[in-house]
Amino acid sequence: MTDNRNYLGHRNGIPAGRRGECGDYLLYADRLYKTYPDGEVRALNGVSLGVHQGEYVAITGPSGCGKSTLLNMLGVLDVPDNGEIYFRGQPLTTRRDLDNFRARQIGFVFQSFFLIPTLTARENVQVPMFEGPRLSARERAKKADDLLALVGMSQRAHHRPMKLSVGERQRVAIARALANDPVLLLADEPTGNLDSENADKVLDLFTALQKDRNLALIVVTHSDEVAERADRVVKMRDGRVVADSGADIIPTSDSAATS
Known about the structure:
Blueprint: E1 5-6, E2 27-35, E3 42-51, E4 56-60, H1 67-74, E5 82-87, E6 90-91, H2 98-105, E7 106-110, H3 121-126, H4 137-150, H5 166-177, E8 184-188, H6 196-213, E9 216-220, H7 224-228, E10 232-237, E11 240-244, E12 250-251
Parallel strand pairs: 4-9, 4-10, 7-8, 8-9
Antiparallel strand pairs: 1-12, 2-3, 2-5, 5-6, 10-11
Helix pairs in contact: 4-5, 5-6
């Protein structure tokens, strides 16, 4: 018999039957299901997760367990087949301005950086600002300089990505993720391409940003060292949450997918 339990504790999740009562959370995912088009792989199988403002959460698990799919859902880069995601108590599926919402509220850090190769570090950091609050060219440049200083990259501001080390590219990517002052920062294997020294620098930076800016930080990782830095560790397997260091267990059933 399949054990279909989700970790929906009184502190970090909302029990079934109280859908939408998520005012205590910055972000709440309520019973998310996702099956890929071939119909053979259920990437998410009733996942629920609540994250508070200022909380640092690591999501771990083996390859193919659904953790990156979940991160994409939380960042509204993809939509679930069933279930809902709430931001400050409001369902995101009813919003008509998801692109604008994403640009202003969420910062993304990826393993592969995705910096634009023809732009300098300073210019790359400014790219998201065109989707955020209206700023003059001078204001954008100053903000980019301030963010590069924050991540220790002022001296490399006028270098293009190919002239930067791998660790430097990731720090520029973090500065870019902060361009519109997000309240939520999502990172997918942010140290996966880094050596141990640069990984430590990035993790130190994440900790400082989370505390200084009161960011909610959600990191997907295979690394135990990365997970140890978080306030809370959520473990996934086969599309389900199987352990959560900050929650109790409340059973749910597959019927939630069609309710």
